[in-house]
Amino acid sequence: MTSFESERPGCRARILGLFGLGEKRQVTSEFNYRLTDSVLTKAEISFYHVLRQATPLNTVVMAKVRLADIFNVPRSAPSSQGQRNKISSKHVDFLLCDAHTLRPLVGIELDDSSHQRDDRMERDVLVEKIFRNAGLTLLRFPAKQGYVAQQVAEQLQRAVATATVPQVRR
Question: How far is CA 43 from each of CA 12, 113, 144, rounded to the nearest angstrom?
């Protein structure tokens, strides 16, 4: 008997399975991907809709952008691969970009209670240093029940007006 045959359910198991009863078998495959309900949490969705109302003209809001897509490390830099690895799996909650060129203008983080954890605080310090070093503004908004779009708009307009994005160096 092959291992495949030994894993096949018997007649009784098949009948029970039709009614949602019996032993649950875990399906294993290299493709166990399932579509997520949303790429954003409920709090992020709520804030996203406020951001869309509040964004200055000629800007667009992007969600969950990887830091490695915003920043690059020149190959000539010391430990360049290590620096790239540090940011490869990190993202910023939202990124405000120029609508025509999609050049990053302002990073936006929505801080929920998870940002009080030690590992998140350490991550936040790293992200802030990266933004500051690259000359890109990072705004932080506390997660809350509701937002006043006009107040968010004022902060975004100030940040965009003072955005001094250096030339991209590759």
Answer: 46, 11, 8
Coil/strand/helix, residue 104: strand
- The structural domains of the chain, with segments of one domain joined by +, span 42-161
Torsion of CA 71, 52, 36, 113, to 10 degrees: 80
Residues 6+ apart with CB under 8 A from 126: 86, 90
3-state SS class at 109: strand
> With contact defined as beta carbons under 8 Å apart, do 123 and 140 qualify?
no
Per residue in 2-32, pLDDT tens?
Answer: 444 445 667 676 776 677 676 665 667 788 8
The whole model's pTM is what? 0.76
CB 126 within 8 A of CB 106: no
Question: What confidence tens digit (pLDDT) does each residue in 59-76 have?
Answer: 999 999 999 999 999 889
d(CA 108, CA 140): 6
- pLDDT(115) > 70: no
